[in-house]
Amino acid sequence: MFTPAQLEQMRQIGLRLDGAGTFWQADAPVTHARLRTALLTWLDVLPDGRDVVRLDAQRFAYVDVAPDAPHLRAVAARWDGDACYVTWDDGAEAELDYATLTVAPDDALRVMIRKLRGRIGGAAYQTVTERVEAGGDGYVLRARGQVWPLRP
Question: Which runs of consecutive H residues, i.e. helices, occur in 50-148?
């Protein structure tokens, strides 16, 4: 049996995720595509706000995510009627959480996906913004029969 201090030390594995979406273990980038996808799939946030890669409730390790960096990046988006679905770089597809949409300083869209920060840029951005229009003090997204403000 391990002590809590020993478990904490074992969970410090030197894994980090940079602002460009590259995982690093110590000073080496994680280049194996399936391992990278697995790490993205395992990303989670503890109730205290610490980022982890989690296998289950007891087995997890800490990951240092660059400040304000997204956890996940959109690779594609599609509209199904008035609902927008995004495919993330972990392979998951989910409907946008419209209430959490914000505009990043680089004009990309930010959104929460599960408990993680997501970034919508590139081709996915072009698809999502097909339904963006001027409204109120800035821009809004029309989806699900509602108008969702895009806040900075």
Answer: 122-128
The total of other beta-carbon atoms located within 10 Å of residue 52's CB is 18
Burial of 28 (0-12, 13-18, 19+ CB in 10 A): exposed
Q: Beta strands 102-103 and 51-54: pairing type?
A: unpaired
Name the pTM for this structure: 0.89
Those residues whose C-beta lies under 8 Å from the C-beta of residue 62, and which sit 6 or more positions away, are 11, 12, 13, 15, 50, 51, 52
Residue range 10-36, pLDDT digits in tens: 889 999 999 999 999 989 999 999 999
What the block records as the tokens of 46 is: 């503890």
Task: List the strands of the sheet with 93-95, edge to edge.
Answer: 93-95, 83-88, 72-80, 116-120, 109-113, 102-103
